Amino acid sequence: MKINILAIESSCDETSASMISDGKILNNIVATQSVHEKYGGVVPELASRAHQQHLIPVVHEAIQSSGISKKGLSAVAFTKGPGLMGSLMVGVSFAKSFAFALGLPIIEVNHMQAHILAHFIDDPKPVFPFICLTVSGGHTQLVLVKDFLDMEIIGETSDDAVGEAFDKTAKLLGLPYPGGPLIDKYATQGNSKAFVFPVSDMPGLDFSFSGIKTAVLYFLRDSLKENPGFIEQNLADICASVQFTLISMLMQKLKKAAKDYNIKEIAIAGGVSANSGLRNELMATANKLGWNIYIPKMEYCTDNAAMIAIAAHYKYLKGEFCGLDVVPEARLKF
Ligand code: KG4
Ligand code: ZN
């Protein structure tokens, strides 16, 4: 019989379900929560309520469109963490009760590991060991990936995540949440050298992104004092310059990691890996340094259940199930 797994993702503000059969993703249903836009960021209480509304229809659609009946399921997988506690609780509680009712085993998945394992959904797949730069709204990590379930964090941010830096800058510019994709869009029309922002200097392979947020804040305050129309007149240049600075910080540490570990298999993962500037810079560096690079499809960059499903598939093969006493962990580590 085939290994058929239903996977659920509910760590932040996307409610998602996916069906996987023998390691092949059959679908990836995502309901995005628009309720947060007017607040300029994810409101945890509203996120968990929206998950409660979206989860059953999303799971129903994933199962229905897969052509596999509930009786044909082998296991149910879910995101255990890291993420927002209230959001995680909705997915974990649903997965446990659904699996219990059907007498199925359950598989817990680490959201950050799943972002990396999204590279094993389609070809070409990275070869172990590889380095993955995981960049999202909550995390910025350099990970040494030795095997499917054997990963080591070799560098990470000491304060804000890079996605947060994108979103907070966007907010200062008066752009709606999430601002990352909008900065990316405006940056394509701007001059990345128009304004200079400080590049943080952290030891080893660690990052720091809180300084740039403050630098942008003061820069805008001073510029607006002289010219109230400064943002409207320079939006593309500001976006391009901030994006250039953030990408430089990421690339500097990524190059150092590749050199330190003598690895040329390089992957990126997480929401910010959708950024076109980062993708272009990565391709240019790969050409120069002879790296093999792996960039996931757009739909597998931002939060989705297909990545939970592929991670669960490898855990299933190793017999890594958990008990019904499992609870979500907002700060789950590897
Ligand atoms: O991985 P993800 O979907 O959710 C988390 O687990 O955090 O990442 C969301 C983050 C947000 O900060 C969003 O602004 C950022 O990814 N993002 C982008 C782009 N698309 C999404 N940042 C820059 N450029 C983009 N094109
Ligand atoms: Zn994520």
Which small compounds were modeled alongside the protein?
5'-O-[(R)-(carboxyoxy)(hydroxy)phosphoryl]adenosine, zinc ion
**Termini Cα gap:** 31 Å
Structural class: alpha/beta
CATH names the topology of the largest domain as Nucleotidyltransferase, domain 5
In the CATH hierarchy, what is the class of the largest domain?
Alpha Beta
Q: What is the beta-strand fraction?
A: 15-25%
Quick structural gist:
The protein is of the alpha/beta class.
Describe the structure using short key phrases.
334 residues, Nucleotidyltransferase, domain 5, 5-stranded mixed β-sheet, single chain, binds 5'-O-[(R)-(carboxyoxy)(hydroxy)phosphoryl]adenosine, 2 domains, binds zinc ion, tRNA N6-adenosine threonylcarbamoyltransferase, globular, KAE1/TsaD, alpha/beta
Topology summary:
Blueprint (H helix, E strand, L loop, with lengths): L3 E6 L4 E8 L2 E9 L11 H23 L8 E7 L3 H18 L3 E5 H7 L12 E6 L4 E8 L2 E7 L5 H11 L7 H8 L22 H17 L3 H31 L4 E5 L6 H14 L2 E3 L3 H4 L4 H12 L17
Parallel strand pairs: 1-4, 4-5, 6-9, 9-10
Antiparallel strand pairs: 1-2, 2-3, 6-7, 7-8
Helix pairs in contact: 1-2, 3-10, 4-6, 4-7, 5-7, 6-7, 7-8
The protein binds 5'-O-[(R)-(carboxyoxy)(hydroxy)phosphoryl]adenosine and zinc ion.
Zinc ion binds next to helix 3.
Question: Could you walk me through the main structural features you see in this protein, from its secondary elements to its overall organization?
Answer:
- It is a single chain.
- This protein has 334 residues and is α/β, with parallel strands linked by helices.
- The chain folds into 2 domains: 4-116 and 302-317, Nucleotidyltransferase, domain 5 (2-Layer Sandwich); 126-296, Nucleotidyltransferase, domain 5, CATH 3.30.420.
- Helices cover 43% and strands 19% of the residues.
- It has 10 helices and 10 strands.
- The strands form 2 sheets. Strands 3-2-1-4-5 form a 5-stranded mixed beta sheet, sandwiched between helices.
- Strand 2 (14-21) and strand 3 form a beta hairpin.
- Helix 1 runs parallel beside helix 2 (85-102) and helix 5 crosses helix 7 (230-260).
- The mean pLDDT is 96.
- The structure holds 5'-O-[(R)-(carboxyoxy)(hydroxy)phosphoryl]adenosine and zinc ion (ZN).
- 5'-O-[(R)-(carboxyoxy)(hydroxy)phosphoryl]adenosine binds at residues 12, 136-138, 163, 166-167, 178, 180-181, 184, 270-272, 274-275, 302-303.
- Belongs to the KAE1 / TsaD family.
